[in-house]
Amino acid sequence: MKLFTAYNRVLLITSAIGLLIIGYLFYLTLSNYLNKQLDSYLSEELLEVKDYTAKKESFPAHQLFEDLVIEYRHISSLGKKRHFGDTIFYNAKKRLEESGRYLEEDVVLAGQSYRIKIIASKVAHSEQITSIFMVIILPVLGLLIVLLVLNRYMMKRTWLPFRQLLLNLKSFNLNQEQGFAQVPTTIAEFKELNDAIVDISQRIKSDYREIKLFTENAAHEMMTPIAVINAKLDMMLQSEDLSEVQSQNLIDLYKTTAKLTKLNQSLLLLVKIDNNLLRDREQLNLKTMLLEKQHYFQEFTQQKGIEVNLELQDHTLLMSRYLADILLDNLIGNAIRHNHKGGRIDIRLNEEALWVGNTGHGEALAETEAFKRFYKSPSSEGMGLGLAIVKQIVELHQFGIAYSYRAGLHAFTVFFNNNNSTSLLNENS
Amino acid sequence: MKILVVEDEELLRVNIIDYLTAEGNVCDFASCFDEASEKIALYDYDCILLDLTLPDGDGLKLLQALKQQNKSDGVIIITARSSVDQRIEGLSLGADDYLIKPFHLSELSARIMAVVRRRSFKGNDLVVFNELKIDIQSKTLKVNNETVNLTRKEFDLLLYFIANKSKVVSKSAVVTHIWGDHADMADSFDFIYTHIKNLRKKLIDAGCKDYFHSVYGVGYKFADE
């Protein structure tokens, strides 16, 4: 619920209930007062009736009493005392039913007991009540509505800087060069919030920059020692009296050094993608690249007896060639590495997505984990950076990526139009 | 060949010089910017190995100075920085090749040979090793004047081994040479074996001597022994 809605809801409910109670009480008092007036009028009329009968020894026809209905009923004995009440009666003059006020009293007229009922129309009084009521309640209601509208407008205006702040926060990107934009506001609280956010964003930015710089420098600095190790190994290999055990050690050392190099290169690559340092965008024909990759990986697939099925449509993308190369290498490399002998790799390319599916060992990967840095499936010999790099490349180009496991195929899908990704995924599954 | 090694990391420099000297090259070295710029101005080299990050200056400036002096020395940049921009900058300033650390000495040796050959033969380049005649341009191999058909990878391999003749070349180096950085497949070592086996067979079938010698599974040596 929005703050404004929450605030308004309380305000509206309170004023509605208040208005109802006040209106009811007001109406009650007013009609009570008017009823009393009517009652005293009726009493006077009764007295007149009594006087008349006493003088003339006959009942007055009600024509004599304008707007009044007088009923006489013969009763056996005196019972009821004076009694007022509301009733509905037929107004003969107006020829319609009307609400009225009556006075009933048992009297002795000419030695006989009669029950007299005098009914006065309440219509005029009701109209009075309504107009008095309206004159007072309507302006109050109007005032309330004006206040509500004003409140709404003021709230919107006052909270405008807050909404802007929120918008800025949402679009905040650590990698973006420009800092957090100040939002102009005169409200002290928002100003404070603004300053706090600007301050914190600057600190985060500088910390992040330093961490990246550190990673980059550390990785670079490590390259030279690795180069020395590599060169030393190459020199050791030249020695004439190399024993078999030493050779085996050399093999392991070469492999480890290669791994270390690869790790370092991957880290550097991640930093570079993070920093958006690879901006050599060009139009790439993905189909051609995939066919080249198929050739490049031919020996690996043949060795494992992996069947490669390509279903490629022509599709050109604006991408960094270097990164596109790595993206395909990592996806296809993974599909080969985690495959079993005699397995299968399906690669499909259309305008919407690139789909790489492979048979493999084990069960489905945890989708959220798979793209994390240094995540490795238990059987993996890699470093767990391949998919992290893939994800980073995909994000840099504003593509989408998803993992799925169906019918024994581990599949990675790169969606070229990120907005479609969820809908497409649903279609596919 | 006369080679200048501009590298501030002493251990690496010493190794490079040892390896290249053993191949019969004459190596000179410079460990800082000033020393390098002095040697570049004074002498002519067939090839200069240039580290870009020197303690007292940017290696790219040496490259600029070299071009200003109209020197025709071949230049191979060796650097730990692998940025694409820098690579493009280096190559556009006239460097012949760009090698990222860490590299195998055999790879360096092959690159030097390629650079020097490109510079000195200007198109008509023929590599001869005993009965083997390799035409780099047309990518053909002749053994005793008979053409031998090689795949591109086999051709590359042969050239690579000839550039490192009489040296033990590690399988690791061959893998990197053939498949580049991205191939870190565990099985890639086996393919090297297959490729070399095929190449060896083709050469022997063509009446060539068996120059390939395996070294305990760690590497191969191409030598006339």
From TrEMBL, chain A:
Under catalytic activity, the entry for this protein gives: ATP + protein L-histidine = ADP + protein N-phospho-L-histidine
Q: Per the UniProt record, which EC number(s) apply here?
A: 2.7.13.3
Instruction: Kindly list the GO molecular function terms attached to this UniProt entry.
Output: kinase activity
- Report the transmembrane regions from the record: 7-27, 129-150
Looking up Pfam families in the UniProt record yields: HATPase_c
User: What's in the keyword line of the UniProt record?
Assistant: Kinase, Membrane, Phosphoprotein, Transferase, Transmembrane, Transmembrane helix
InterPro entries in the record, alphabetically? HATPase_C_sf, HATPase_dom, His_kinase_dom, HisK_dim/P_dom, HisK_dim/P_sf, TCS_sensor_his_kinase
What are the Histidine kinase domain coordinates in residue numbering?
A: 217-400
From which residue to which does any coiled coil extend?
none
- Protein name, entry field: histidine kinase
Instruction: Give the organism, scientific name.
Output: Pedobacter ureilyticus
UniProtKB/TrEMBL annotation, chain B:
Recorded hits in CDD domains, A to Z, give: REC_OmpR_PmrA-like (cd17624), trans_reg_C (cd00383)
InterPro entries referenced in this protein's UniProt entry, alphabetically: CheY-like_superfamily, OmpR/PhoB-type_DNA-bd, Sig_transdc_resp-reg_receiver, WalR-like, WH-like_DNA-bd_sf
* SUPFAM superfamilies with a match to the protein in the record: CheY-like
Tell me the DNA-binding residue spans.
124-224
The UniProt entry, under PROSITE patterns, shows: OMPR_PHOB, RESPONSE_REGULATORY
**Does the keyword DNA-binding belong to this entry?**
yes
Domain Response regulatory: start-end pairs: 2-116
Q: Which residues form a coiled coil?
A: none
Name positions with the PTM 4-aspartylphosphate: 51
* Record-given protein name: Response regulator transcription factor
